[in-house]
């Protein structure tokens, strides 16, 4: 990785040709393989990946690289130090928070290009304070009560593609 990437940002510092289709935020992710897989999905749809520190891994982690394979170099991403930085940098956009504690399903949301999809860590989820603050924008995927949680990468992929489906797909 380059010096700019090890400091926490990737191609986001390079001139961009267009706005990201979506913004995918991982709030304090723990597992590099999930982050790598989510990064690959972001490349596939033209979304930007945001990582909120602290992270449960190093950004040069071999598992992160392996899961992202050769796509990581094409990913627009940034790592930031706080939730307040996300709110400031993405102000004016619609935030959707994914949590198993939500009342509404993702199918009940009306997604638009430029929306922000926020996912919690694999071990802790999203803090209650964030869920409370954005209660009307909390969503969940339906699952049988015997299932405690779904894999973060699987959940993010499902929600990203539902959003893209709703607003007409990719212009590729």
TrEMBL record:
GO CC terms in record: cytoplasm
EC main group: transferase
Subcellular location: Cytoplasm
GO BP annotations, alphabetical order: wobble position ribose methylation
InterPro entries cross-referenced by the UniProt entry: Alpha/beta_knot_MTases (IPR029028), SpoU_MeTrfase (IPR001537), TrmL (IPR016914), tRNA_m1G_MTases_N (IPR029026)
Keywords, alphabetical: Cytoplasm, Methyltransferase, S-adenosyl-L-methionine, Transferase, tRNA processing
Domain tRNA/rRNA methyltransferase SpoU type: 22-161
Binding locations of S-adenosyl-L-methionine: 98, 120, 141, 149
One MF annotation (Gene Ontology) recorded for this entry: RNA binding
Pfam families in UniProt: SpoU_methylase
Main location class: cytoplasm
EC number: 2.1.1.207
Family: Belongs to the class IV-like SAM-binding methyltransferase superfamily. RNA methyltransferase TrmH family. TrmL subfamily.
HAMAP family linked to this entry: tRNA_methyltr_TrmL (MF_01885)
Function: Could methylate the ribose at the nucleotide 34 wobble position in tRNA.
Stated name of the protein: Putative tRNA (cytidine(34)-2'-O)-methyltransferase
Organism: Caulifigura coniformis
Taxonomic path: Bacteria, Pseudomonadati, Planctomycetota, Planctomycetia, Planctomycetales
